[in-house]
Amino acid sequence: GESVTVSEFAGMIGIKATELIKKLMMMGVMATVNQHIDAETAQLLGAEYDIEVETKTVKEDDLLPQVEDDPEKMQHRPPIVTVMGHVDHGKTSLLDAIRETKVADAEAGGITQHIGAYEVDHEKGKVVFLDTPGHEAFSGLRARGANVTDIVILIVAADDGVMPQTKEAIDHAKAAGVRMVVAINKVDKPNANVEKVKTQLAEYNIIPEEWGGEYQFEEISAKNHVGIDDLLDRVLLESEMLELKADPDRPAEGIVIESQLDKQKGPVGTVLVKKGTLRVGDAFVVGDNQGKVRAMFNYAGKPIKKAGPSIPVEVMGFSEVPESGDSFIVTKDEKTAKQVASMRHDKKKEKELAERSKVSLNDLFDRI
Ligand code: GDP
Ligand code: MG
């Protein structure tokens, strides 16, 4: 909680820090002026000086909003989809095809995608696609133990079949417990062999519905924009079965999926809202930093005032550039956000210090 350093504690009980350090040494505790002391040590010191020390542990959870999911308030949210597959099997082409056929004509008239995610308004509902660069892809599936993606589109080129990264994608999706829809791509190619791909995937227990399995397959040509609508239908069908729901009426929680230092905007990050509604003006803690939402932009770069569950937004107002994968939690005010951030910061530093002293102790033992 609000822990105390040696010098702060000395000040509280009205003695010199150096004296307190001596006392601690006699108690067998080696400490420096800026070191934090734990509640137990504070109690022992209190006993030494005949002062009653009252300790209270404030935990992060006491400061963050604790909202139980209320079934009455849960509402449908759009599925968050990631495309995975072997290199050159058509991930980028598919994401482009979906964007070009489903987004471009709508509001933006040929928008250039602004952030690593976009929204599609298909006739049967909204779908959110993640399109984060390779090095940040890890946070596209799972971050800090939580699923980011609801559905994976596993793309396999019909002329190439199952390859090492196809297997890797299957393993990742299965480990994360994320449902897959299979897109067999490049069916326009003369050497396309759809049946072979199905047989290969069956070896990994990915069996199409028409063979009695539980996976939806769609044959597509990303390059020729063939099968895109049908693939989206399948994604939405899959999403219906998952019954994705969230309470939009609570403080927002989300995950940072990408971040950068923008020349004009300062530190910015794309946040995927998982619960609640994020609003301009909200204070938040993110990793061991904090901030206040100064402005938000949607996938097309349009300023927006609020964003509900599943919606990706670019957020301005971070104290520092956040890390992708960081959790993002709205707090009741800025003071609370700062308090939680500093608790997390202290914890991280203590851990680093402990690691370092372990190393130096080992060095010492190596030398003697
Ligand atoms: P990624 O590495 O998975 O992102 O694959 P890309 O989307 O970059 O595609 C790799 C290559 O395959 C490019 O030259 C594409 O033009 C080509 N390609 C993608 N989809 C199709 C398709 O449906 N048919 C054909 N013939 N080529 C495709
Ligand atoms: Mg690509």
UniProtKB/TrEMBL annotation:
Places the protein is found: Cytoplasm
Q: Which residues form the Tr-type G domain?
A: 76-245
Q: Where does GTP bind?
A: 85-92, 131-135, 185-188
Annotated region described as G-domain, given as residue ranges = 79-227
Domain of life per record: Bacteria
Tell me the function of this protein. Answer: One of the essential components for the initiation of protein synthesis. Protects formylmethionyl-tRNA from spontaneous hydrolysis and promotes its binding to the 30S ribosomal subunits. Also involved in the hydrolysis of GTP during the formation of the 70S ribosomal complex.
Primary location group: cytoplasm
Recorded GO cellular component terms are: cytosol
In which organism is this protein found?
A: Flexistipes sinusarabici (strain ATCC 49648 / DSM 4947 / MAS 10)
Question: What protein is this chain from?
Answer: Translation initiation factor IF-2
Which protein family is it in? Belongs to the TRAFAC class translation factor GTPase superfamily. Classic translation factor GTPase family. IF-2 subfamily.
Q: Name one GO molecular function term.
A: GTPase activity
The residue range of the signal peptide is none
**Which chain regions cross the lipid bilayer?**
none
Cite the entry's keywords alphabetically.
Cytoplasm, GTP-binding, Initiation factor, Nucleotide-binding, Protein biosynthesis
